[in-house]
Amino acid sequence: MWYALSRLLTGALAGALLAVPAPAHAAEAPSTTRAAVSAPGYWHTSGRTILDSADQPVRIAGVNWFGFETTNRVPHGLWIRDYRSMIDQIGATGYTTIRLPFSDDVFTGTPNGIDFGNGRNADLAGLTSLGVMDKLVGYAGSVGLRVILDRHRPDSTGQSALWYTPQVPESTWLAHLRALATRYRGDPTVVGIDLHNEPHDPACWGCGDLATDWRLAAERGGEAVLAGNPELLVFVEGVQSYHGDTYWWGGNLQGAGAYPVRLSVPHRLVYSAHDYATSVYAQPWFSDPSYPANLPGVWTKNWGYLFQQGTAPVWLGEFGTTLASTTDQTWLRTLVGYLRPTAPYGGDSFGWTFWSWNPNSGDTGGILTDDWTTVNTTKDAYLATIKTGGTGGPDPAGCSAAYRIDNQWGTGFTATVTVTNTGAAPAAGWRVTWTWPGDQRIVNVWNAAETRTGQAESVTNAAWNGALGLGAAASFGFQASYTGPNGVPTPSCTAT
């Protein structure tokens, strides 16, 4: 994740302290609860959707369980619980996917921080880190969960901006990606590999420098994965900066539209972003006068557009918060809505894995509380509408609306709204609605018809731009006046 100071301290303390043997506890019996499952077999992509082996849409809805990437070289919490009990609880809480961060040290290091008291984790005794990973993957698959392996760090000492370091060259990265893909070939529990966690400056996207261009490196890394198993999904995160515009580490995918990742095996690419709240870092958009109405525009600009335009599936691989402030609570509530609720959209949605299952994430906390057993029901409840519960297809008719201010002066501005057909069928027409957050008033509109009731706007298509084929878009614009802050509204779109 975005490594704030508290996270760095947490990781250091984990490496120094968590290898201490935990007190003995009674062995925990495995739960009989099983997660909702997709069809057996590997997953693939079609447009912006991930499909299972029966070509039914799948939504990734899961959690990050970290620890393999630290000096423990196994997931955290095994010093107090049996791994099967932990995995059972993840499934019973409604999560269907586990993102497992790891470092390249798992290929050579010895695991520590596992409690074997009273029969707990007995079958992990004497195993290497990769042997422990085998056990976790095997059990997760047996209870209907899927796993995404996340190359989080080159080694357990800390995060790196680039995918290589002097100690861990690119050749090692590529060899290990291929080795892991080969290791789990034939076991579709592992659906894919996240190539490298949170590339950031000086990593670039599309700059052409082989030493720093993450887009080109991701193509090399993706080919290594596919050489080991051509049926795996390849998850590619963004960078920090693109053309001077800075975002969360790994969250800036602005360049992927102009410079897409190219893989030799089709239907395997999934883009991945990370997004966080003020408990991690007070980014400028949190203090914008239009907050939280500005958030959808921020997300769309950096990563959401790839999904909205049907370029590829987008998976929010990390997002999290302590929920300590009202700002953070509003952020999470707004983000969950942006990711699209499962009930109407099913698998035609953004995938996600929450950071984190662990409670010992210093700047976010976790789904579990500090006892490593009790679920933080307040935090978990925020995610209820985007958990999966199964698979489902897109709405027959659906559309999205993206609002952009083009020009602004003392008392006026012009804006463009782009409507995109996001449904599974052509649209005959569309209607966009929003509520102004301030004192704005449309003076003139073009390419659409506008009506206003109080602060509420309703804009319908013109006679010549209502019909939209699959993935097609149309735009309308307007001139408006305003006094006070010119906050950005959140438009909703309805297709007919």
Automatic annotation (TrEMBL):
Residues 392-496 form the CBM2 domain. SMART domains: CBD_II (SM00637). It is an enzyme of class 3 (hydrolase). This is Endoglucanase. It catalyses: Endohydrolysis of (1->4)-beta-D-glucosidic linkages in cellulose, lichenin and cereal beta-D-glucans. One of its GO terms (molecular function) is cellulase activity. One of its GO terms (biological process) is cellulose catabolic process. Its EC number is 3.2.1.4. Residues 1-26 form the signal peptide. Belongs to the glycosyl hydrolase 5 (cellulase A) family. Pfam families: CBM_2 (PF00553), Cellulase (PF00150). Keywords: Carbohydrate metabolism, Cellulose degradation, Glycosidase, Hydrolase, Polysaccharide degradation, Signal. It comes from Longispora fulva. PANTHER family: ENDOGLUCANASE, MAJOR EXTRACELLULAR ENDOGLUCANASE.
